[in-house]
Design a protein that fits this description.
By secondary structure, this protein is of the alpha+beta class. It has a single domain, classed as Alpha-Beta Plaits (2-Layer Sandwich), CATH 3.30.70. The chain has four helices and four strands. Bound molecules: copper (II) ion (CU). Copper (II) ion binds next to helix 2.
């Protein structure tokens, strides 16, 4: 169900220029160590639209900030992480800065 919702959201975003988000958040399974985090970060930074990347091992969360007015499609994100051996459980887009996401991740650390 979650996957269907994410796909639907992706289709809507692709059709609507005004619905672009500043940050894309993904719940990713298979993230276990700092090397995973580094590899994912490197891979996501290779997208031309990527401005910044934050990875939380504890929360299995990957956040990508996109450049103003740009976006990275759900399929491209999913493929990049799946090819690297991870499973993307959900993709969300929010009009939130990546600094704010980082602050939230930091605050949630035990
Ligand atoms: Cu690892």
């Amino acid at each position: 169900m979650k996957i269907h919702r994410a796909l639907a959201a992706g289709v809507l975003l692709a059709m609507s220029v005004s619905a672009q988000a500043a940050t894309i958040e993904m719940d990713v399974n298979g993230l276990v160590c700092a090397f995973c985090a580094q590899g994912i970060e490197k891979k996501l930074r290779s997208f031309a639209s990527t401005e910044d990347v934050a990875v939380s091992l504890e929360q299995r969360l990957v956040a990508v900030a996109v450049k103003p007015g740009q976006d990275i499609g759900d399929e491209a994100l999913r493929t990049a992480l799946t090819d690297a051996g991870y499973t993307v459980k959900a993709i969300r887009r929010a009009d939130e800065s990546i600094d704010s996401v980082r602050a939230r991740l930091k605050a949630a650390k035990p």
